Amino acid sequence: MKNCTILILLVLFSFGSAHAQSFRTGNAPSTKILRFFPNPATSYINFEFQNSYDRAYIVQVYNFLGKKVADITQVTPRSQIDVSGYTRGIYIYQLKDQTGKVIESGKFQVER
User: Fold this and answer.
1) φ, ψ dihedrals at 92, nearest 5°
2) Which residues, at least 6 apart from 96, have a Cβ–Cβ distance to it below 8 Å?
3) Are 6 and 65 within 8 A, CB to CB?
4) Given its phi and psi angles, is residue 30 left (phi above 0), alpha (psi -120 to 50 degrees) or beta?
5) Is 101 in contact with 72 (CB distance < 8 Å)?
6) Residues 59, 7: Cα–Cα separation, whole Å
7) 3-state class (DSSP) for residue 111
8) Average pLDDT of every residue of the chain
């Protein structure tokens, strides 16, 4: 239980620290490449690229405990993920390039 609490705090801190850093430096937060909708989702969640699109991207989805629940390697400009088997909660997505570098991350919610 203690490890789970630490993991949750680390995830929350990492999201907050990126925003705080952009505030301190005076830079506006960067524009998102991916748009996830609807949020919250019940059976499917769609994602689409806003502007740039590279076929070499990978989208990975993790539950709030850090377990990978989806790995989309065949990324298209607009795709859909079936979340009907997901439990209710918050999920983290990561957009990675072909080298594995995280380009973008964010979160979405699944409701029942």
Assistant:
1) -110, 135
2) 57, 58, 59, 60, 102, 103
3) no
4) beta
5) no
6) 21
7) coil
8) 80
* Candidate from 1-10, 76-85, 99-108 with smallest mean pLDDT: 1-10
Instruction: Check residue 13 and give its pLDDT.
Output: 43
CB 29 within 8 A of CB 96: no
Structure confidence at residue 29 (pLDDT): 53
28-36 long-range contacts, Cβ below 8 Å, gap at least 24?
A: 32/104, 32/106, 33/95, 33/103, 33/104, 34/59, 34/93, 34/95, 34/104, 34/106, 36/93, 36/106, 36/108
- Long-range CB pairs of 64-73 (<8 Å, 24+ gap) are 64/8, 64/11, 64/89, 64/90, 64/91, 64/92, 65/4, 65/7, 66/7, 66/11
The residue that leads in pLDDT, 74 or 102, is: 102
**What pTM value is reported for the model?**
0.70
Q: Are strands 78-82 and 44-49 parallel, antiparallel or unpaired?
A: antiparallel
Kindly report the backbone phi and psi dihedral angles of residue 33, in degrees, each rounded to the nearest multiple of 5, phi listed first.
Answer: -85, -40
